[in-house]
Amino acid sequence: MATSESKPFIIRNATPSDADNINQLCIAAYEEFRAEIGEQNWPLLHETLSHTSELITVGELIVAEDSSGLLGVVFYVPARRRKEAVLRTLAVSPQHRGHGIGRRLTQECIDRARRDNAVAIALTTAEMMTVARPMYQRMGFIKESELGKRFGVPHARYVLKLR
Questions:
Q1: Are 123 and 87 contacting, i.e. CB atoms less than 8 angstroms apart?
Q2: What is the pLDDT of residue 2?
Q3: Of 97, 123, 130, 157, which is least surrounded by CB within 10 A?
Q4: Cβ distance 158 to 124 under 8 Å?
């Protein structure tokens, strides 16, 4: 069990009853990037984030939770034909940042990729993610390629080789 502000939190698979809270958490977490994304791109990102919980049908939604509710969420896609797992849509509640929740959710995805015998785990992240990108790099992810713009901001692909 990990801790946030000295309060313990757990990591678990999301359930259908978490859907509304996941969607709201993702919108709140990405709201800070609204200016960088731009008002013309924000409605599309907002709409996409408002359906994050639906990803449970194509992979594993993993949440961090304490007695106050959900603290963060990440989407994990197990390795399949390409033998590479994927981490997507990491979001931590703005009021719970800085306590290792994002790192713990990322580590959970790495652990699951190892469990699934993946050769690597990949993610995409935006240039504007000035906290997440360095965290990924400290955890061993290496920038592999530029991907162009998504929602109006530059994105890149990062990979952590597992074997």
A1: yes
A2: 60
A3: 130
A4: yes
Nearest to 73 by CA among 51, 57, 88: 88
SS3 label, residue 57: helix
pLDDT at 4 over 50: no
What domains does the chain contain, in order, with CATH numbers? 9-161 (3.40.630.30)
CA distance 87 to 103: 12
Q: Which among 135, 101, 69 is positioned nearest to 4, based on CA atoms?
A: 101
pLDDT tens per residue across span 81-108: 779 999 999 999 999 998 999 999 999 9
The C-alpha torsion from 100 through 104 and 107 to 113, rounded to 10°, is -150
Query: Whole-angstrom Cα distance, residue 37 to residue 94?
Result: 18
State the pLDDT at residue 25.
95
Q: Between the CA of residue 61 and those of 24, 42, 44, 91, 127, what are the distances in Å? A: 14, 23, 21, 11, 24
